[in-house]
Design brief:
Strand content: under 5%
Order of helices and strands: HHHHHHHHHH
CATH superfamily: Tetracycline Repressor, domain 2
Structural class: mainly alpha
Largest sheet: none
Radius of gyration: 19 Å
CATH class: Mainly Alpha
Number of domains: 1
Helix content: over 70%
């Protein structure tokens, strides 16, 4: 699975054929098809495996909060580390979604499952920061992250990371703090 995942990430899921996967792994065609009846089944497994890795990574990053905003900042720094990784080619989910645009496709459904979980995780971390606008802040975070993932593989990663983290800092500064008198007196814009 690791070889196929690496090929899918670096080349794109449509560009990689079953023959290439089989020729670069110690498996036979029969064994491959016993585990994955189709290439789409393998792609779903790739998406689900990537999703699980991110879930595990974020669970570790969120394990010991030190302040109400430490979770949001931990996720932002996780994104920053991804962008600065050698061989970074953007978000595996966004890349695959571009190749599978139909909502009813099993690959697209696996991508949407990840994105719902990711948004909910970020929303929950914003709820630690603010009583108001956690949903909007989480959506904003995801949009900033998606843009940074695209920009990070097209431009200078260092500048992209700096800009992304600056945007997250700005969001956190503007949010009314949880249970503060200011938070109760301000209305969402």
């Amino acid at each position: 699975m690791g070889t196929a995942s690496g090929l899918f990430y670096t080349k794109g899921v449509h560009a990689v054929g079953v023959d290439e996967i089989i020729s670069t792994t110690p498996t036979t065609r029969a064994t491959f098809y016993r585990h994955f009846p189709s290439k789409d089944d393998l792609i779903v497994a790739y998406i689900q495996g990537t999703d699980q890795q991110i879930r595990d990574d974020l669970a570790a990053a969120l394990r010991n909060p030190t302040s109400p905003d430490s979770g949001v900042r931990a996720i932002a720094h996780y994104v920053a580390r991804q962008i600065k990784t050698a061989g970074f080619r953007g978000c595996a989910f966004l890349n695959a979604a571009a190749e599978y645009p139909h909502a009813d496709d099993p690959i697209r459904k696996a991508i949407q499952t990840h994105r719902r979980w990711y948004y909910e995780t970020i929303r929950n971390e914003f709820r630690r920061v603010t009583d108001e606008r956690a949903e909007l802040a989480a959506k904003h975070f995801v949009m900033l992250r998606d843009g940074a993932m695209v920009e990070g593989c097209l431009a200078d990663a260092k500048t992209t990371v700096k800009t992304f983290l600056h945007g997250i800092d700005g969001m956190l500064e503007l949010l009314p703090l949880r249970h503060s008198p200011i938070a109760r007196s301000r209305r969402p814009r």
